[in-house]
Design goal:
Blueprint: H1 8-15, H2 26-33, H3 41-54, H4 58-70, H5 74-86, H6 92-97, H7 108-132
Length: 133
């Protein structure tokens, strides 16, 4: 994505082509990439977080959590990513490498996410090994 590549200005322009479908959360993306966040960013973020948590797909939770981290919403980002891991989206390598998560890496909660992702991965590999041996 453009945000992951650090191309914020190009992302601002590309957001204009994003569907206004509520599942795409265009309003949150627009608010996020403005140089001065709008006063209603918290309200928009709360609605988007609730909608994402209602989604059954843990990959969506991870993806949106990463966007929240970029958008200076670390608590929400951590909750979304944690819920993705809890739903077996282990994401260990993504947590370690995703540039959108740079703002989270110094937080103690991020260490907890890494630990949870490692445990998730260990469980997955143990189950996989039961079926391949």
């Amino acid at each position: 994505s453009l945000l992951r590549d650090g191309k914020v200005e190009q992302a601002r322009m590309a957001i204009q082509r994003v569907s206004t479908n509520p599942y795409d959360h265009r309003d949150f993306l627009e608010a996020c990439v403005q140089s001065e966040p709008p006063e209603n960013l918290n309200s928009i973020a709360q609605k988007v977080e609730a909608a994402v948590l209602a989604e059954p797909d843990p990959e969506t939770r991870y993806y949106e959590g990463a966007v929240f981290a970029f958008c200076r919403k670390p608590e929400e980002a951590i909750r979304l990513i944690r819920s993705a891991i809890d739903q077996n989206y282990c994401s260990l390598s993504a947590l370690q490498r995703d540039p959108l998560l740079a703002s989270l890496r110094g937080r103690s909660e991020f260490g907890n996410l890494l630990t949870a992702a490692r445990e998730c991965q260990k469980k997955f590999l143990a189950i996989r090994d039961q079926f391949t041996n």
